[in-house]
Amino acid sequence: MPYFTIKKQDDIAVVLLNQPNSPVNVLSTKMLSSFATLMDTIEQDNEIKAAIFYSQKPDCWVAGADIKEFMAMKSSDEAQELSRGGNKLLSRLANLKKPIIAAINGATLGGGLEFAMACHYRIASTDKKTVFGLPEVKLGLLPGGGGTQRTVQLVGLRNALDMLLTGKNVYPYKAKKIGLVDELIHKEGLLQAAIKVAQKGFKKRSRKKGMLDKVLEGTSLGRNFVLKKARETVTRKTRGNYPAPLKILDCVEIGLDSGMAAGLEAESAGFAYLHSTEACKSLIALFIAMGDNKKLKSTAKTHQVHDIAMIGAGFMGAGITEVSIKAGYNIVLKDISLVGLGSALRIVWNDFNKLVKRKAMGVVERDMLMAKITTTVEDSDLKNTDLVIEAVFEDIGLKQKILANIEATCKSNTIFATNTSSLPIADIAANAKHPTNIIGMHYFSPVPKMPLLEIIVTNKTSARAIAIATNVGIAQGKTVVVVKDGPGFYTTRILSALTHEALQVLKAGASIEAIDNAMKDWGFPVGPLSLLDEVGIDVAAHIARGDLGKMFKDRGIEKDDSIQKLADAKLFGRKTSKGFYIYPKKGRKTVNKNIYKYFGSEERKDLDKTTVQNQIGLAMVNEALLCLQEGIISSAADGDLAAILGLGFPPFTGGPFSYINAQGASEILTTMKQLHAEHGIRFKPADILVEYAETDKVFI
């Protein structure tokens, strides 16, 4: 079956896009070969006056390039030739004398959008599945099919940089507003509207420019100012760890200064250069792993649920409710307080209203989603639910009480999932009638934005409970990692190792900002002390008092009571406007120098940045190794996914285990031995690291 099929309607060629044996259309070398033949047909057939590209996939126009094919390329020369070949074809398309119309419904991303931009006219549906974007920067790449050039031509420099440097999605109404598409229509009338445009012809309208755009984009001085500011922002945010954004800016600047042909050649060269970088390889591997994670979904009837009960209407409960109704589930939201229920509904409503204002969600869709929530203060209203998720305060007695009420009220096969970051699931289930139904579902805050769900299982948790929790998590848009029960599970445990070591460096005399800046330079999006302020110092102290703190103590690691002293002093972080930093109502946060009295004195000293990074970063890496060694995580791949998506471990490294692979296990072991000699037992290298170093093995 061919990728392209031409169906003529009078003198209009409707080109149907339908990649065989694939749920979506993607660009590949095989497709590009067919595309050249297609253009020959359109160009040489005198009966064809115009052509329309229309996808037969229900929710996809063209979803981008075949990433696995790209990864299989053995050299950067291959990548450069792919980009050059693609650019040659799309330039040919753009220069065809016959009108070419893209009739777009569904995802139009990466190379798909580059294809659409090379067409002469773009008409898109307003369907919620229609979305545009150039996500290549998230993969450590740049758009290699003219994206750095045509985006600027269509939407202007500032809008183009926003798309190119963030990779964010653009929805239909915004796309029309900025000039990315020419016309919008409902999905059902898309093809007929495109045929009408092809028959009657069209007149390209110039994008409306505000005064600021005229000043900044209409002169070389203004353009240079925009590019200069963009470089400064990129450098500040990436801290030199991600080469793609700067390469994108280079291509844009060359195109503006020297013309389209020079810009396209720079694009192909940049595409080839980025192909060989470790950042690109790691980010693409992460993307593929996230895609493969969706394959964990079970289709067995006994593993499906339709109705979910949510106990606890706080910020986490509201977030879990929001992602659940968006996934199609009906939710019974229970709390002890009507005020709490009202607050949760307001949080969800406000989030949806933001989407409505951006025209990324319709009013009717918002109201239908909100109608999926039933609120209650009565346990009896939960009796028919298949899955109960509990997200109350981290108090084991309270969670056990809720579990007992659920077992007394609900069906004997109802799954009970507790949202906890550190309380052992086995302890919560200690008095359960049906311990096989008990599971942990650890969400990360804010739930609608954070992509990870850590599922925690005990030695009694049933396969059915695991399958149901996994299915729900995937439906909610989460990447799911299943871990074994234990103090802190995986994510909280390795995060605690990181923050504990940051406190030791603080005690050694480093300043708060030096520690945070060193770890941001290492690749973390947020420094460890800033993170403690965001999580809540009181929460960290609560975790340290529990089983996780006891586990570290049993390993011989000296207890650190400084975090408890801060909590006792009500220095909780952002929530109390004061922690390691001071958070004014207006303006930027500043270092709280008064906190130094808990860590020696206000006098601080300069410590070598690399030493600080190794001490803090490898504490986390070694803890991840111990989790793999003990079977808390089942694979290094899971450990990488969870560390990046849940904790912000530097994505360009691929995760803690990929980081070891890149540096070499023997190199990491040497550094760990030095840290062990200097700082003692907490840096004793994991046995698995010693084994891999001695046998020259790799983790992934």
Automatic annotation (TrEMBL):
Source taxonomy: unclassified sequences, metagenomes, ecological metagenomes
Origin species: hydrothermal vent metagenome
GO cellular component: mitochondrial fatty acid beta-oxidation multienzyme complex
EC number: 4.2.1.17
Enzyme class: lyase
PANTHER family reported for this sequence: TRIFUNCTIONAL ENZYME SUBUNIT ALPHA, TRIFUNCTIONAL ENZYME SUBUNIT ALPHA, MITOCHONDRIAL
Name under which the protein is recorded: enoyl-CoA hydratase
3-hydroxyacyl-CoA dehydrogenase C-terminal domain segment(s): 488-583
Assigned protein family: In the N-terminal section; belongs to the enoyl-CoA hydratase/isomerase family.
Span of domain 3-hydroxyacyl-CoA dehydrogenase NAD binding: 308-485
Pathway(s) where this gene product acts: Lipid metabolism; fatty acid beta-oxidation
GO-annotated biological processes: fatty acid beta-oxidation
InterPro entries: 3-OHacyl-CoA_DH_CS, 3-OHacyl-CoA_DH_NAD-bd, 3HC_DH_C, 6-PGluconate_DH-like_C_sf, ClpP/crotonase-like_dom_sf, Enoyl-CoA_hyd/isom_CS, Enoyl-CoA_hydra/iso, FA_oxidation_alpha_subunit
Pfam families assigned: 3HCDH, 3HCDH_N, ECH_1
SUPFAM superfamilies given in the database record: 6-phosphogluconate dehydrogenase C-terminal domain-like, ClpP/crotonase, NAD(P)-binding Rossmann-fold domains
The entry's keywords: Fatty acid metabolism, Isomerase, Lipid metabolism, Lyase, Multifunctional enzyme, NAD, Oxidoreductase
